[in-house]
Specification:
This protein is mostly helical. Helices cover about 100% and strands about 0% of the residues. It has one domain. The protein has two helices and no strands. Helix 1 packs across helix 2. The protein is rod-shaped, with a radius of gyration of 53 Å.
């Protein structure tokens, strides 16, 4: 009977073959579409990873900058401590010099007073 049907309707056999070919191509297109969607998801993931990497690079630069600022601050604090110590030494030295100068002035004044008294007392006799 199928033989009879094939002989009577030869287009049906070629139509079935064409239909099978169309179905096969449709399935291939569906698979291609799935592959393209997967590829698109991969590109989106890659873009997200790239953005994360850019943020990490910026974060690392910021951490490096903070570390450098801490190191610079440490150096400045150490220099400040040395300057304070040096300032205290200068202050002690200046205080000693002021005391010495005051003693010299007092001695000079005593000598001047002694000379004036000696002259005054010698003129009285």
């Amino acid at each position: 009977m199928q033989l009879f049907f094939r002989q009577v309707n030869p287009l049906s056999v070629s139509a079935k073959a064409a239909l099978a070919d169309v179905k096969r191509r449709h399935n291939e297109i569906v698979e291609l579409e799935k592959s393209i969607q997967t590829m698109q998801e991969i590109f989106v993931d890659l873009q997200n990873l790239t953005e994360i990497q850019v943020h990490l690079v910026k974060f690392n630069e910021m951490v490096d900058n903070i570390a450098q600022n801490i190191e610079t601050t440490k150096d400045h604090v150490e220099q400040g401590a040395r300057n304070v110590k040096l300032g205290l030494e200068y202050k002690k030295s200046a205080t000693r010099k002021k005391i010495l100068l005051a003693l010299v002035i007092i001695i000079i004044l005593l000598i001047v007073v002694a000379i004036i008294l000696a002259v005054f007392l010698s003129n009285r006799k």
